[in-house]
Amino acid sequence: MEVHSIKSSTSSSERSVIEDRRRRLEKRIKTFHKKGDIIMGVPEVDDISSDEDSGENMEEWEDEDEDEEGRQSQTVDESENGQPERITLWLPSTLGKERIDRLGLECLGLQEMELRQGQANDALAALRTELGHKALLFRTKVRQSMNTKGKTRAFKEIGKSERKIKKEVRSYMRARRALERLGADGAIMERYKVIERRDLNVSSDMVEENRIGQRSEKLAWFWRLGPQSDTGPWMEECKIL
Questions:
Q1: For the segment 142-176, what is each residue's pLDDT rounded down to a tens digit?
Q2: pLDDT at 216 over 50
Q3: pTM reported for the whole predicted model
Q4: How many CA within 13 A on the CB side of residue 172?
Q5: Distance between terminal CA atoms of the chain?
Q6: Helices (DSSP H) in the chain: which residue ranges?
Q7: Predicted confidence band at 67 (pLDDT cuts at 50, 70, 90)?
Q8: Which of 98, 141, 185, 216 is most exposed by smallest CB count within 10 Å?
Q9: CA separation, residue 230 to residues 123, 127, 190, 235 (Å)
């Protein structure tokens, strides 16, 4: 996310912070892979795939508010300094179900499957909360703003909320893709469906409490995925509204 925020106006100190974090990330990944060599004993990691070729279009959920100048600056920085944030981690899901079975890594595969379901659940919980926050912003900020300045400020807040929503969708979709590669059964994959853009529409029930036809409106599938343990000021206020 920080790399995507690089623009021509980004200061040298801000760029240095990002590059420092990249160096530390690369060091951590190398350490992780050394341990993975011992635990997994996988000699064939050169042809492993990653999120970029997963079949799920992750670019759909990237932020769309970067200007062209910012993209050009980002491209230069990445080509000169490398991109450790794009290094594929050596995990059972990276190998795929066929090689997991062939290499005798079923136990590790099952452990990652449990963790990936937890990742998906956490992402969906955060997604529901942020969608509630966005609905509340429409209700309390956009609708009640009486001038252009107020509406501009309100829509900036909504923009921040939308970026958080995309972040949680990316996290969820990566977890779902990992479950798929781990060979999760039909029941698990049916539970964790693909998120479509239409699923992220703000519920009119949250924005207009007296709107006609509320009972017939269907919420996206992840609003009914239990157990429901979402807490926080945004969800509580939405319930009150």
A1: 777 778 777 788 888 889 999 999 999 999 999 99
A2: no
A3: 0.75
A4: 23
A5: 33
A6: 12-40, 68-81, 92-95, 97-102, 106-137, 148-181, 186-191, 204-207, 233-240
A7: very low
A8: 216
A9: 11, 10, 22, 7
